[in-house]
Amino acid sequence: MKERSIPKETIDRLPLYLRCLEKIIDEGDVNISSGNFSEKLNLNSAQVRKDLSYFGDFGTRGVGYKTETLAKQIRSILHLDKKWDMALAGAGNIGSALLTYNGFDEGDFEVKVAFDKDPDLVGKEINGVKIEAADSMEKVIRDENIKLGIITVPADAAQEVADQMVEAGVEGVLNFAPTLLNLPKEIQLAQVDITKELEQLVYYL
Amino acid sequence: MKERSIPKETIDRLPLYLRCLEKIIDEGDVNISSGNFSEKLNLNSAQVRKDLSYFGDFGTRGVGYKTETLAKQIRSILHLDKKWDMALAGAGNIGSALLTYNGFDEGDFEVKVAFDKDPDLVGKEINGVKIEAADSMEKVIRDENIKLGIITVPADAAQEVADQMVEAGVEGVLNFAPTLLNLPKEIQLAQVDITKELEQLVYYL
DNA sequence: CAGTGTGAAGATGTTCACAGCG
DNA sequence: CGCTGTGAACATCTTCACACTG
Q1: pLDDT per residue as tens digits for the range B150-186
Q2: Number of structural domains chain B divides into
Q3: Which residues 6+ apart lie within 8 Å of B62 measured at CB?
Q4: Which of A42, A77, A112 is the last residue before a domain boundary?
Q5: Are residues A133 and A73 both part of a single domain?
Q6: How many CB pairs below 8 A link A and B?
Q7: pLDDT value of position A5
Q8: In terms of residue numbers, what domain contains B35?
Q9: pTM above 0.90, yes or no
Q10: CA A62, C1' D1: Å apart?
């Protein structure tokens, strides 16, 4: 059943390794050791080695990892060797902030089209992304063959929107609405829950 | 050292229990069982019971948990029985989206003041929150006795802003910048990392 | 007798410690 | 000699299973 029993946590850390590597590469370093990584990311160096070794023997004993090569490997593992088109539902506060957010412009992810049910928003453009009518969503997603959906609608609409996205062929959903979505298990779900983060945070204060 | 060795994961789930409870209360139910919770939240019922039992014996055998009472208990455990004022640094895309976001208006959290170093933004108001000059941040946070900071500045400025916040007396930081912040260990940190979420998500596709 | 609370077993993740290679 | 890769020990979290009680 499992791909190869790679801990979820390892996958969690890969993006951090990648980000760290990209910085290091910018600084011109050719090699990086697990100890080096572990300092920058506040984790155990054995963890770094184990994480990386799940995917192959990338390192050279006595030396470390070649930064360029490792970055390429991690990008490939994470499926970042292609550009991902996304559809965004809900062009309200957070939705339009994401449309304006240029962190995506680095190339891996791009919001191709946005949807809203507010007629005043439909037809407008934000940061070059057209806002279309909510009821055209399924068709557009299908026609454009979009596989990633972002949900930034109010909580009470989130499940319905998610269902429509899945129906239209979306395989992964990033949900900002504070609701637990019920999706077919083959659909991947990531949740960003700001209130939850705050509530956890203050527990520890 | 540990408070009482309550799993982080348990704390992670408390906000979900709470949200679920509030829905149930709205629907008029007086009791809820662990099995009931487990269906709604997709987790094991023993987990629910164990999580709740870390904090006391809240349930009644044969019946379940009293919704109102349990909600109150959880709010108290999470320290949500007071209002938390927050300071927000960086009134750009995400920052202003958070200012406009009315999920906070439920009462537990409120952005009291925002800061930006762009002179064009300073002096403006977004959703009733004044934007002040970045260099007044330390003083204002200290004067207003604010204990929670939100960082929505670009990644390369995040560490500096975080340091200033800590210097000014902030005890918890919610960071939206895609950087690993280095903070004194007594300062609580929560991270919202949208790109990381997406990168993880597509790994599984 | 339905549903809690909880030891004990099981599963998952992390760290240690060291053999082995460049 | 330095650093990787990895079995084994350890730590943490989840699930099972059942005694117990309102």
Answers
A1: 999 999 999 999 999 999 999 999 999 999 999 999 9
A2: 2
A3: none
A4: A77
A5: no
A6: 150
A7: 86
A8: 8-77
A9: yes
A10: 8
